[in-house]
Amino acid sequence: MMGVVLAGTCLAAFVILASCSITLGGVVARSVVRDKTARQQIRIGLVTIATYLTLSFTGTFTARNLLISLNTMFYLGLAQILPGVLAIIFNWRVSSADLMRGMVGGLVSGCVLRFGGVNLYGVNPAFMAVIINLCLCCWAAGRKNK
Known about the structure:
- The protein has 146 residues and is an all-alpha fold.
- The chain has helices at residues 2-32, 38-62, 66-78, 82-89, 96-115, 125-145.
């Protein structure tokens, strides 16, 4: 039974890795490198996928704690879109520059909290970074409405 569970886990991991690889290849080939022919886009996408997979496998075998740090940084960065989504939902009058300032402030403060060894007593650094980001965005919105 344990072998079946391990096989299912491996297959699930491969599905996620494959979808990330294909998505990354398409984004780089079509959005980052523009004005290329279809054949060049395919070649750029394949090189991007091969590079990504090589770096992933190399990182897995050489830096065991890297995945934990990258996962934390991913959530720290992903959470920074929350004030922008709230601004859209609640129709806040916040400019894109103010949202960007909030995101940068949230990312910088989150990195300082995460890698500076600040004791947050069990609170996730990404949560504190989003609070800082939200405060910066609300401050900008309040400043513009006066």
